[in-house]
């Protein structure tokens, strides 16, 4: 094996000067399975010392399933070292799903590989592989809590939690998946437990496995987690505290509307308490007992006090001269749940967004 490892650095044997050299474009290259393994091992451990593969050897390489001999911090560096292709071309191969790890396409060039992972390449010399322009991750998210089982994050307003029918690729789930692939080398998607509207900010929990996510979902279905929201609503609420209870159904415009008829729609219960009364608005703390889509927005809009900035429910009432933000005045501020593995009670609270503070000093 040592002899084959040294093969790329040895001088070629003497031959006729008019004879084609092995490795020239169009001629086969004697690359055995042993030298494949040696090349891969060296590419992982000593990428700067590896000579490029010939065209024919590269073509042969794309038909192989190769096992990583050891952990590699970046797959793109390994592929570039093995093939001799430029970093630009290699990144283009990743962007075009031409690199797979354990059968799954790898889109992130900086993803690590584990010992024993199966690497495969697809390469066509006639194709110009150009890397896709980077996605601008704005807004982002903040890690609030993380262990080996779950992840709690604070989402910024303007970021979709999950893709819609338009199949957007810059969602919170995408961000979390990329983060986990880099930090924990988890290649499976993050397991979503619940969601927030695009224009709502605040806390969300993800499971790092389907088992953990299902255990947390069971808590949500039993109405056990504590979920408190901060909201700015239009007008002056009469009671210092109160409860909205109705059944939510979807109308022909795909909006949520309430009905008092049991058996029609899903039961939705929202509790609120006034934090501060303003001249033409009210700052409230909202507690969800159930978690239906748009529940808080629907209940307050139907009461004549829509969430400021709402462009779907009671739109005209939701406008306010001091709320100029392109988002809802709604923030998931507190989240409490029982850890599904350790059984420890977890509770997280975030600061109010700066736009809330600005409004409270002006309104």
Number of helical stretches of at least 4 residues: 9
Mean pLDDT: 79
CATH class of the largest domain: Alpha Beta
Q: Looking at this structure, what is the CATH superfamily of the largest domain?
A: Pseudouridine synthase
Share of residues in helices: 10-25%
Please tell me how large the radius of gyration is.
Answer: 28 Å
Tally the structural domains. 2
Q: Please state the second-level CATH architecture of the largest domain.
A: 2-Layer Sandwich
**What sort of overall outline do the alpha carbons produce when their principal axes are compared?**
elongated
What is the element string, with H for helices and E for strands?
Answer: HHHEHHEEEEEHEEHEEEEEHEEH
The fraction of residues in strands falls at 15-25%
Give the class from helix and strand content and strand pairing.
alpha+beta
| Low-confidence runs | 1-34, 44-51
Keywords:
alpha+beta, Structural Genomics Hypothetical 15.5 Kd Protein In mrcA-pckA Intergenic Region, Chain A, eleven-stranded mixed beta sheet, 15 strands, 23% helix, disordered N terminus
Can you describe what's shown?
Mean pLDDT is 79; it is low at 1-34 and 44-51. Helix 4 (75-83) packs across helix 5. This protein has helices at 2-5, 33-45, 55-61, 75-83, 87-95, 172-183, 210-221, 295-302, 354-362; strands spanning 66-67, 99-101, 104-105, 118-121, 141-146, 150-155, 191-192, 201-207, 226-234, 241-250, 256-259, 266-277, 281-288, 330-338, 345-349. Strands 5, 6, 7, 8, 9, 10, 11, 12, 13, 14 and 15 form an eleven-stranded mixed sheet that branches. It has two domains: 2-121, RNA-binding S4 domain (Structural Genomics Hypothetical 15.5 Kd Protein In mrcA-pckA Intergenic Region, Chain A); 141-362, Pseudouridine synthase. It is built from nine helices and 15 strands. It has 363 residues and is α+β, with helices and mostly antiparallel strands. Helices cover 23% and strands 25% of the residues.
């Amino acid at each position: 094996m040592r002899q084959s490892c040294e093969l790329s650095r040895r001088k070629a044997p003497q031959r006729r000067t008019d004879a084609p050299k092995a490795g020239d474009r169009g001629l086969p290259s004697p690359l055995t399975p042993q030298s494949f393994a040696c090349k891969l091992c060296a590419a992982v451990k000593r990428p700067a010392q590896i000579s490029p593969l010939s065209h024919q050897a590269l073509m042969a390489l794309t038909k192989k399933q190769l096992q990583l001999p050891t952990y590699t911090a970046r797959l793109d560096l390994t592929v570039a070292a093995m093939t001799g292709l430029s970093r630009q071309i290699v990144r283009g191969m990743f962007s075009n799903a031409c690199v797979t790890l354990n059968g799954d396409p790898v889109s992130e060039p900086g993803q690590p590989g584990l010992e024993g992972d199966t690497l495969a390449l697809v390469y066509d010399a006639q194709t110009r592989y150009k890397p896709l322009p980077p996605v601008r991750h704005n807004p982002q998210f903040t890690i609030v809590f993380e262990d080996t089982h779950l992840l709690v994050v604070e989402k910024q307003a303007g970021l979709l939690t999950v893709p819609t029918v338009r199949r957007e690729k810059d969602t919170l789930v995408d961000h979390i998946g990329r983060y986990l692939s880099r930090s924990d080398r988890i290649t499976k998607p993050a397991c979503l437990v619940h969601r927030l509207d695009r224009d709502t900010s605040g806390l969300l929990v993800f499971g790092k496995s389907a088992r953990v996510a299902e255990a947390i979902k069971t808590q949500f279905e039993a109405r056990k987690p504590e979920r408190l929201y901060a909201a700015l609503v239009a007008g002056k609420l009469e009671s210092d505290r109160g409860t909205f209870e109705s059944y939510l159904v979807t109308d022909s415009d795909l909006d949520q509307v309430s009905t008092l008829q049991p058996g029609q729609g899903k039961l939705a219960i929202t509790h609120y308490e006034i934090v501060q009364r303003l001249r033409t608005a009210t700052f409230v703390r909202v507690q969800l007992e159930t978690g239906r889509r748009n529940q808080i927005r629907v209940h307050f809009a139907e009461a004549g006090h829509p969430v400021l900035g709402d462009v779907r429910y009671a739109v005209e009432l939701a406008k306010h001269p001091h709320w100029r933000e392109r988002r809802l005045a709604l923030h998931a501020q507190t989240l409490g749940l029982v850890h599904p593995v350790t059984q420890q009670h977890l509770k997280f609270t975030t600061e109010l967004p700066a736009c809330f503070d600005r409004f409270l000093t002006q309104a």
